[in-house]
Specification:
Elements (H helix, E strand, L loop, with lengths): L3 E4 L4 H10 L4 E4 L1 H8 L7 H14 L10 H33 L12 H9 L3 H34 L1 H6 L7 H11 L8 H6 L16
Parallel strand pairs: 1-2
């Protein structure tokens, strides 16, 4: 095999890395371009899609998509995991507020440290609601511990990453923004001009793509 073409998807990075380590020349191609090229096929099957991608690779009518370094993918996974736990904790807290509100109890805006104590104070006179609230508070406590662990891992990564430390010298740029930007951009030399960083436009002649959204 001279070239192997992969349509960009959630498994692309893993497949690209494994095939590259096996000594196979693999190229990740733009999903929208592949879809446009195969859109004229009358029968949409996996076999026909594979034949269509093979034809694209033979003719050279494709645009290669940059596959990020494993380290950058690891950073993005770390940030995503932390964000997932943060969102779920907020959902549980909002659900607890809704339970209290149905019983005529308003939680107000206690600090993170006083949240559990305030909830227990409100539900003391209602045994059934107290049992439910304590269960949800236990879940929130576990999530808070995991968020602290994930936060520490982010700070540890930023502490030893020189590019992140340089980015943090900019006013208003903290460790999470620095690591998110570093993980998203990966290799700045892929971009021909700074405008491409803002719009996620194709970079060098190889057509590498990057979406420079941070968050």
């Amino acid at each position: 095999m001279k070239r192997v073409g992969l349509e960009a998807c959630s498994l692309t990075a893993w497949l690209h890395q494994a095939l590259t380590e096996a000594g196979i020349a693999v190229i990740c191609i733009d999903t929208r371009q592949a879809k446009a090229a195969m859109g004229a096929m009358p029968n949409k099957t996996d076999r026909n899609d594979a034949r269509g991608i093979a034809q694209i690779m033979r003719t050279g009518w494709y645009r290669a998509v940059h596959v990020k370094d494993p380290c950058c993918r690891s950073w993005r996974a770390l940030l995503s995991a932390r964000r997932i736990v943060l969102n779920k904790r907020r959902d549980v807290e909002n659900g607890l507020r809704a339970l209290l509100r149905e019983a005529g109890l308003k939680l107000g805006a206690p600090s993170r440290r006083n949240f559990a104590a305030r909830v227990i104070e409100l539900v003391t006179d209602d045994p059934a609601l107290s049992a439910l609230a304590r269960s949800l508070l236990s879940v929130i406590a576990v999530m808070t511990q995991e968020i602290e662990r994930l936060t520490k891992r982010v700070l540890d990564e930023v502490r030893i990453e020189p590019t992140c430390r340089r980015l943090m010298t900019v006013q208003g740029v903290g460790p999470f923004t620095a690591l998110a930007f570093r993980a998203t951009i990966d290799r700045p030399d892929r971009f021909r001009r700074s405008l491409a960083l803002q719009r996620g436009l194709p970079a060098h002649a190889d057509g590498a793509l990057c979406t420079a959204r941070v968050g």
